[in-house]
Write a structure and sequence with these properties.
Rossmann fold, 2 domains, Glycosyltransferase family 4 protein
Length: 432
């Protein structure tokens, strides 16, 4: 069978959305024929993507309703690029908000019990998977058991298919588990399903060198590093010359989750203090899709030359970045968030590397992105809150070699994130 005729079934929690902040799937499959990609996902949103034409949605709110309404349909084929929102979608969006508000190990435990009912194994899903005639089942791993069970079910229905797995977060080690009975139980069961998938997999991809080291030991295999790829043509030349700027402009575009809001607000406070003490040297702007609390908005607006703004479309981010001098990459210093982010490597990082702008990374020393930036000397790295004011002084007084950092960032793009190289690695895994 020719490569471009092979079908791929993608199992994920999240919806494909080309305008969303997370574009992992789009980046992986942008070189593939959309007609050969099939997707089973569990979020409420409708997909909006030019990279996949075939979608099957398992609706969690319908799974809950199925406990009480025998005729309730849990899943169905859904259209791509549809603007409509039906009643069930709106209901599940409300449920998703509740999940975020009351998320806890016990709540996660109850959620997984709901999926154990297997009401999602409808005839329509069975037919969709079989009719995909997929040669490869690709799993974008999440920290939920039910997604892995869907993948194992798909493999059962497609016994001749190969399995390819991609870890983008620490969904396996106990270090990332909530420290409670239900948290440890959930991690134990999650690890059990992941072990089964890894045993069936021909290739296992991970997102960072730190994750590779740990997962190679855990699974006794050789995983492969796969990150968001960069087209060399799009890598920007340096536009930084901080010493010539009267005001140095700092930018963060992204969510305020996992404690990032605390680190960003701490930076804003230091900037305000620096501007007050030495005259206005810095401007700091945040654009975020996360809705801050009224208290946070009030607090942030008090900081001198700092602004908190509504989000811009993903397609506008690159243009916005071109207007600033330094891009901020924050991760939380709090232990509860370190366990979540310590092995991850955001798609934002590769975008930053190709931007032609200086990167300022703020976060704990031993998490994956800080290790990457420090090892490759491609960003100013602050691994303690205590050094931030001092680092502002270094930037303001031209004691940071921004040109060298940007030059090294460009090298990283070519060495580790080259589109042709990354694409070849992934296509070989999927097709061969």
């Amino acid at each position: 069978m020719e490569e471009n005729n092979k079908n791929i079934l993608v199992i994920s929690v999240h919806t494909w959305n080309d305008e969303g902040g997370s574009n992992t799937l789009q980046n992986l499959f942008k070189q593939f024929d959309p007609a050969n990609i099939y997707s089973v996902y569990t979020r409420a949103d409708f997909p909006k993507s030019k990279f996949c034409n075939n979608f099957y949605q398992i609706r969690e709110i319908s799974l809950l309703r199925r406990l009480f309404i025998r005729k309730e349909k849990v899943g169905s084929v859904v259209p791509s690029n549809s603007a409509k929102e039906n009643v069930k979608t709106l209901q599940e969006n409300k449920v998703k908000k509740i999940y975020k508000q009351v998320s806890s190990p016990l709540f996660t435990f109850m959620r997984e019990l709901l999926w154990l009912t297997d009401y999602w194994k409808e005839e329509s899903l069975k037919n969709y998977i079989k009719n995909s005639n997929a040669d490869t089942v690709f799993i974008l791993v999440s920290s939920v058991i039910y997604s892995n069970r869907i993948a194992l079910y798909a493999k059962e229905l497609l016994p001749k298919s190969k399995v390819v797995i991609y870890f983008v977060d620490d969904s396996y080690t106990y270090a990332a588990a909530a420290k409670s009975f239900f948290g440890i139980w959930h991690r134990y069961m999650l690890r059990s399903t992941l072990k089964k998938l890894v045993q069936k997999a021909s290739d296992v991809f991970v997102i960072s060198p730190k994750m590779k080291r740990e997962f190679d030991r855990s699974f006794s295999i050789s995983t492969k590093i796969l990150t968001k790829s960069i087209d060399p043509i799009t890598i920007k030349n340096s536009t930084n010359n901080l010493s010539n700027n009267k005001i140095i402009k700092l930018l963060y575009v992204g969510n305020l989750l996992y404690g990032r809001n605390t680190e960003l607000f701490n930076l804003a406070q230091h900037i305000s203090e620096y501007n007050t003490k030495y005259g206005v040297k810095f401007q700091f702007d945040i654009y975020t899709q996360t809705t801050p609390s009224t208290a946070d908005i009030s607090k942030f607006n008090k900081y001198q030359n700092c602004s908190l703004n509504k989000p811009v479309p993903y397609s506008e981010v690159e243009r916005l970045q071109s207007q600033y001098d330094i891009l901020i990459y924050p991760e939380s210093f709090r232990a509860r968030y370190i366990r979540i982010t310590r092995l991850s490597f955001s798609t934002k990082a590769t975008d930053y590397l190709a931007s032609g702008k200086m990167i300022w990374a703020i976060g704990p020393k031993h998490i994956a992105p800080m290790e990457y930036f420090a090892t490759n000397h491609c960003a100013l790295v602050s691994t303690s809150r205590a050094t931030i004011f001092k680092d502002l002084g270094k930037i303001a007084n031209d004691k940071v070699n921004s040109e060298e950092l940007i030059k090294n960032a460009r090298k990283c793009c070519m060495l580790f994130h080259d589109e042709e190289q990354q694409g070849l690695i992934f296509r070989n895994a999927v097709y061969n």
